[in-house]
Specification:
This protein is of the alpha+beta class. Helix content is 40%, strand content 23%. The longest helix is centred in the middle third of the chain and has 44 residues. It binds adenosine-5'-diphosphate and magnesium ion.
Length: 372
C-alpha cells in the first residue's frame, strides 16, 4: 500500500482526539502510522499528512524494545506501560517520557501509542512520596534515639569508673568505649533535632540576608577552601519564613556542596531569581505559587547515582562519616514552610533548588491595641 492512499479503518477521530494533550499515534498492523493527533504532530514536528503511512519507528525512536511491546499488547489485548524511556524524533535531543501502548478494543492489530513527556508534576509526585516515607522513618528514629541515650549514659559512666583501676593499655579500651558512646550520643542528638524542631516562627525575611549569613558562616569554617559566588536578583520581595531555619537550610546545602568537592577548590554559586512557573496544588487549598527561587550550584562530582533517589531520606549518606540527616532536615524545614526543594545532578554540576512563597503583603494580623 502506498503512503498516499494509506487509510486508517477508524474515521478521523473527532474532538476528543484533537483535544488530547498527549502526543498520540495510531499504528496499523504493519507498523505504519495510521493517525496522529495534533499534540503528536507538534511533538514530532511534522504534519499528519506527512506522517500517515510512515513506519512509526522511522519517525520516532524509543529507547525500549518497542516491537516486543506492540506484539505483547496485541497478543494480550491489554495496554502496557513503559516508564522513563528516552524518546527522540528527528534531530531533537531525547526527551524522557512515559509511553503507553494500548491496542484498539475492537481490532488489536491497531495499537495506540501515547507519549507523555515526564514533566514537573511527575517529579513532584515522587518527591511527595519520599517526604512521607521520611516522616515515618524519622518518627521511629526519634523514639529509638530517646530510648538508646539512657543506657548509653550508663555504659559510658561505667567505663569511666572501670578505667580508674586500669593499666594504661587497658585504659585505651575503656577510652574507646567512652569515645564511641560519645559519637553515638552526638548522632542521636541530631536525630532528636527533628522532633525538637519547633514550628517555624514565620515573618517577612529577606532571602539574601539568610543566604549571606549562611555564606559567611560557611566561609569561616567548612567551606574555607571553596570559592562562593553570588548571583542574586536584588529585586526579590521577602519570603515568609523563620530566618534561623532558613539559614539552616542554606548552611546545610552549602556544606554538602563543599564536602562534595573533597578538598579541591571548587566553586559554589548561590543564585536567586523569580520564577512563576512552579505551582503546587495542595490537597486542602488553592494552588500555591512559589516564585522565589534559590539555587545552590556546585561543580563537584555529583550525587552518587545509587543513592540519588533517596538523598532526602534520613540516614542515606554517600560519605564515609555522613549521618544522612542534613538533607532530611532541609526537606522537613522546607515543607514546614510550604516550600519545595528539588535537585538536578550530573558530574560537574549539582543544583539544589529551593522554591519559597512571597510574604503576604500585610504581614500577620496585628494585635488590636496597636491601633488605639
Ligand atoms: N552537592 C552535592 N554533591 C554531591 N553529593 C551530594 C551533594 N549533596 C548531597 N549529596 C549526597 O547526598 C548525601 C546525603 O546528604 P545529607 O543528607 O546532607 O547527609 P550527609 O551529608 O550526612 O551524608 C551525601 O552523603 C552525598 O552523598
Ligand atoms: Mg550533609
Amino acid at each position: 500500500m502506498s503512503p498516499a492512499n494509506y487509510r486508517s479503518p477508524y474515521p478521523v477521530p473527532g474532538v476528543v482526539w484533537a483535544s488530547l494533550p498527549i502526543p498520540t499515534l495510531l499504528v496499523g498492523p504493519d507498523g505504519r502510522i495510521a493517525e496522529v493527533n495534533p499534540a503528536g504532530e507538534t511533538f514530532m514536528n511534522a504534519s499528519a499528512r506527512m506522517l500517515h503511512g510512515q513506519p512509526v519507528f522511522d519517525r520516532l525512536s524509543i529507547d525500549a524494545p518497542m516491537d516486543e511491546a506492540l506484539a505483547r499488547a496485541r497478543a494480550n489485548h491489554a495496554a502496557l506501560f513503559i516508564n522513563d524511556v528516552d524518546v527522540t524524533t528527528g534531530e531533537r535531543p531525547p526527551v524522557q517520557c512515559n509511553v503507553q501502548v494500548a491496542p484498539m478494543h475492537d481490532n488489536p492489530d491497531y495499537v495506540m501509542i501515547l507519549i507523555s513527556p515526564r514533566d514537573l508534576a511527575d517529579r513532584l509526585g515522587r518527591a511527595m512520596q519520599i517526604k512521607s516515607a521520611a516522616k515515618s522513618a524519622i518518627g521511629m528514629a526519634e523514639m529509638l534515639a530517646h530510648e538508646i541515650k539512657n543506657p548509653l549514659a550508663g555504659i559510658s559512666g561505667a567505663a569511666q569508673l572501670l578505667s580508674m583501676g586500669l593499666t594504661p593499655e587497658d585504659r585505651e579500651l575503656t577510652d574507646l568505649i567512652v569515645e564511641e558512646t560519645r559519637r553515638i550520643v552526638k548522632l542521636l542528638e541530631q536525630v532528636e533535632q527533628f522532633g525538637n524542631l519547633r514550628p517555624p516562627e514565620r515573618r517577612a525575611v529577606n532571602i539574601h540576608d539568610a543566604l549571606d549569613r549562611a555564606r559567611k558562616s560557611a566561609q569561616m569554617g567548612f567551606a574555607a577552601h571553596m570559592l562562593i559566588v553570588e548571583d542574586y536578583d536584588p529585586s526579590l520581595p521577602p519570603t515568609w519564613a523563620d530566618p534561623d531555619q532558613l539559614m539552616q537550610v542554606f548552611l546545610n546545602l552549602i556544606k554538602n556542596a563543599a564536602e562534595a568537592s573533597a578538598g579541591r577548590q571548587g566553586t559554589i554559586r548561590l543564585r536567586s531569581f523569580y520564577d512563576l512557573s512552579l505551582r503546587l496544588r495542595r490537597k486542602d487549598g488553592p494552588a500555591a505559587q512559589l516564585p522565589l527561587t534559590i539555587e545552590i550550584i556546585d561543580d563537584g562530582p555529583g550525587i552518587p547515582p545509587e543513592i540519588a533517589a533517596e538523598i532526602f531520606e534520613p540516614f542515606v549518606s554517600g560519605r564515609e562519616n555522613g549521618t544522612g540527616l542534613g538533607l532530611a532536615l532541609v526537606s522537613k524545614i522546607i515543607s514546614d514552610h510550604e516550600g519545595w526543594i528539588s535537585v538536578d545532578s550530573v558530574p560537574g554540576r549539582t543544583v539544589f533548588r529551593v522554591s519559597l512563597p512571597v510574604a503576604p503583603r500585610e504581614g500577620p494580623p496585628k494585635p488590636k491595641k496597636e491601633r488605639t
